[in-house]
Write a structure and sequence with these properties.
single chain; 269 residues; alpha/beta; Alpha-Beta Plaits; Rossmann fold; 5-stranded mixed sheet; 5-stranded parallel sheet; 10 strands; 45% helix; elongated
């Protein structure tokens, strides 16, 4: 992954590449977290390192500051995306308490987030820089060079606010979206539009979410992601037994849902 240094962004990519190469070599996974932050001094980095070790003694981490870009970087050796996401919660708490966080935290893990290439790292840095000044939420990164294999989505949810929010965000990302407020309407639109993906609440009327999942699994090649208020393990187990591909609980971050859709699309390739 040779990088020619020509500008601050490329300098940031080069520094990130050097940090990742040591951690990624021979590893099954490598987590990466980037966050726009005010200048991070050595004392702050040492304190963050101590806090992370006290919480996760098994996680080897490299913490650094990309000076040209104003980005805090953390590389986590042999950590998958779920582990990196957990670490980002600790980093978010620390940087907010210190008054240093200036945008969203962008979280990735290779190879889960895509192939580890110079282009992917450049996109990761660009994504992080674009979040400066935005909300302080956590964004899960996927390599956008990978083609979409999910283009049409049906959302089944009796909660109009939740349904419209997801519909709007998906349409902004280029998906074709249909919506249904109950299970019967969902089945009617499913037969008519044949979407690539169904996102369903379990608490549907007339035909509930479990029945919808079962029907989709038996009669269609469509995938199902559950997006629900039901957080009990027995609900999750039943949904997966009926054929759900993923399960997301409310309240939720749209960036997490978008990553789940992206990951599902990559599995379909």
């Amino acid at each position: 992954m040779a990088v020619i240094v020509q500008e601050p962004i490329q300098e940031g990519v080069w520094q990130l590449t050097q940090r990742i190469q040591d951690s990624y070599s021979g590893s099954a996974a490598c987590g990466v977290i980037l966050a726009p932050c005010a200048s991070f001094n050595q004392k702050a980095m040492e304190q963050l390192q101590r806090d992370m070790r006290s919480d996760r003694s098994d996680a080897a981490s490299d913490i650094f500051y990309l000076v040209p870009n104003g980005l805090l970087g953390v590389v986590l050796s042999e950590q998958k995306l779920a582990d990196a996401h957990y670490a980002s919660l600790l980093i978010k708490d620390f940087t907010e308490r210190q008054g240093l966080l200036e945008g969203q935290l962008v979280v990735a893990s290779f190879p889960e987030s895509g192939e580890l290439t110079e282009q992917a790292l450049s996109q990761l840095v660009h994504t992080s820089l674009q979040t400066r000044g935005e909300s302080r939420e956590i964004q899960l990164f996927t390599n956008q060079e990978a083609p979409h294999r999910v283009s049409s989505v049906l959302i089944a949810d009796p909660d109009e606010v939740s349904r419209e929010f997801v519909k709007l965000r998906l349409e902004m990302d280029g998906y074709e979206v249909e919506e249904a407020h109950d299970g019967r309407e969902a089945l009617e639109k499913l037969a008519r539009t044949m979407p690539d993906l169904v996102i369903t609440e379990l608490n549907l009327t007339i035909v509930d979410g479990y029945q919808l999942i079962d029907r989709v699994n038996r009669d269609y090649s469509t995938e199902v992601i559950v997006l629900t208020d039901n957080q009990l393990p027995k609900n999750m187990i039943r949904a997966f037994e009926l054929g759900a591909a993923d399960y997301v609980t409310k309240p939720f971050s749209y960036s997490e849902l978008a990553w789940r859709i992206r990951k599902l699309a990559l599995r379909r390739m």
